Amino acid sequence: MADESEHAPAPASGESLLNKIAEKLHGHDSSSDSDSDSGKKDTSSSIKDKVFRLFGREKPVHSILGGGKPADVLLWRNKKISGGVLGGATAVWIFFELLEYHLLTLVCHILILLLAVLFLWANAHTFIHKAPPHIPLVQVPEEPFRQVTSALIIELNRGLAALRAIGSGRDLKTFLIVIVGTWILSIVGSWCNFLTLFYIAFVLLHTVPVLYDKYEDKIDPLAEKALIEFKKQYAVFDAKVLSKIPKGPLKGKKIA
After folding, report:
1. Directed axis angle between helix 172-191 and helix 142-167, to 10°?
2. In angstroms, what CA-CA distances link 251 with 34, 112, 226, 247, 254?
3. Closest by Cα among 98, 95, 89, 74 to 192
4. Burial class of 74 by CB neighbour count within 10 A (0 to 12, 13 to 18, 19+)
5. Could you give the C-alpha distances from 44 to 37, 41, 48, 89, in angstroms and in order?
6. What is the DSSP string of 180-242?
7. Could you tell me if 248 and 169 are in contact, meaning their C-beta atoms sit under 8 angstroms apart?
């Protein structure tokens, strides 16, 4: 009986050791489950992050517009500067379009007024007891004009290369898009002159990007639906019309 009483606690210690091992295994399983759940959540969140964006963009609107001060102006980050630019363009359009003021006439009138004020001030300073006007030496810097000219030449060469690629007859889809776009532009040009068209484009450039940047989460789903519908209609048009148009000389025929 004494031996049994001495060896009685051993099973309890063995059971406690087994319980500890089971708890550790259970904790490891739960941690692995939580890791797998978190991994699933990460993958699901990454899938949700891949939302359709207009024109397949992956960068913010500010970066697409070039960043820096021009993008800040177009996105109205500084409302005073953006409002001043748009107000100045509106004033120019009112002067030349509504008031029918001509550019050469405006420049000549400004020069006449400026030169007359400076000339009278320079000759009448002894009578009005004021110092003669200090006319600063104005020089046009060459480097900005060189940069602008270089950028325009690069874009012009790109445009000519694109027109050459379109005229080569290799891409029928791009050819039709350019033809339709040019035709629509010609119709819009018949409604208004170049200045009004330029002003409309200027206003759109200062309103559409900021509106899209503000409501992109609502615009992108609508754009996705429109793109899907356009692809369906284009597939039907391609099957019925474009696929029946010969795309070049047959290579299998030989000249006899």
Report:
1. 120
2. 63, 71, 39, 11, 8
3. 98
4. buried
5. 10, 5, 6, 48
6. HHHHHHHHHHHHS-HHHHHHHHHHHHHHHHHHHHHSHHHHHHHHHHHHHHHHHHHHHHHHHTG
7. yes
pTM for the model: 0.56
Taken as a whole, the chain contains a residue count of 256
* Token pair listed for 78: 């500084």
Gap between the Cα atoms of 47 and 182, Å rounded: 39
Query: How would you write the pLDDT of the chain (256 residues) with one tens digit per residue?
Result: 444 444 444 444 455 655 665 565 555 554 444 444 544 444 444 444 456 666 566 777 777 777 778 888 888 888 899 999 999 999 989 988 888 888 888 889 999 999 998 888 888 777 777 777 777 787 878 888 888 888 889 989 998 998 888 888 777 878 888 899 899 888 888 888 888 888 998 999 899 888 888 888 888 888 888 888 888 888 888 787 777 776 655 444 444 4
